[in-house]
Amino acid sequence: MSGDAGHAAPRSRPVDVVLPCLNEVEALPSVLDALPEGFDAVVADNGSTDGTPELAASRGALVVHEARKGYGAAVHAGLEATRTEVVAVIDADGSLDPAELPAMVTLLCDTGVDLVVGRRVPAARGVWPWHARLSNLVLSGLMRVRGVGVRDIAPVRVARRQALLDLGITDRAFGYPLELLIRAGAAGWRIREVDVAYRPRAGGRSKVSGSVRGTFRAVRDMTRALARTPRGAPSGDRTPGTPNR
Ligand SMILES: Nc1nc2c(ncn2[C@@H]2O[C@H](COP(=O)(O)OP(=O)(O)OP(=O)(O)O)[C@@H](O)[C@H]2O)c(=O)[nH]1
Ligand SMILES: [Mg+2]
User: Fold this and answer.
1) Which residue from 33, 38, 125, 175 has the highest number of Cβ atoms inside 10 Å of its Cβ?
2) Domains recognised in the chain with CATH numbers
């Protein structure tokens, strides 16, 4: 793909943005408002009871309803509904700023890497609890062992749609992003990790890091994802990637 140096996500390159949403009616408006021009929301819902999908639809987002529960199930359904060559996935709780997406897209397209992921850098004190940081540290260590040198678990990511689908990620819970990274590394993808500001969520309730229980569930899902994707290459014979920085 040819790059447009100096232009962050020009209108000629629309990008569908998958927003996994579980009861995000408080946070979603500010996230949708913050989407830059040319970035179109695909809200992936699977069980909100607070009117999230209705709100999303009323604001012009494409809403995808998925029957199966889980973060990964929602993201996968959202990804299938996207129509652009380059796609993004970002949390819909207001903790990450969609204004960071154009630079990530430009990086993907101009440098020819296969995946650009965000590494959270707290923008306020106390935004990232100790148990979540600890689990992240452990998980990034485990990924490093598998040749994926990222320091976060990709809460925001930009890649080419078909390549993402072709990775064949099977996890439908919180292990999804980890499996994505491991499969991408095993497939020899070039991965770039960039710093993104991490802010308090804009209302609503955390499903993961807001509680020790939530963090435990996520770590459990991710450990399962690790167990399912043995060291080496789920996709066979290609050299593991040695990504970023
Ligand atoms: N559709 C769907 N979205 C989910 C599910 N679990 C989490 N999400 C969304 O995934 C994103 C990340 O989840 P969060 O609850 O913010 O988890 P977290 O970032 O660890 O928690 P905080 O630090 O409190 O923000 C949010 O947009 C959630 O709404 C799920 O089962 N289904
Ligand atoms: Mg969050």
Assistant:
1) 175
2) 15-228 (3.90.550.10)
Give the C-alpha separation, 218 to 173, whole Å. Answer: 8
Residues having CB closer than 6 A to ligand 1 are 20-22, 24, 44-46, 69-71, 74, 91-93, 95, 201, 206-210
Taking only the tens place, the pLDDT of each residue in 162-180 is 999 999 999 999 999 999 9
Q: Which ligand is nearest to the CA of 208?
A: 1
Query: Residue 134 corresponds to which amino acid?
Result: L
Tell me: the pLDDT tens digits for 131-162? 788 888 888 888 888 889 999 989 999 999 99
Distance between CA 140 and CA 222 in Å, rounded? 11
Neighbours of ion ligand 2 (CB under 5 A): 91, 93, 95
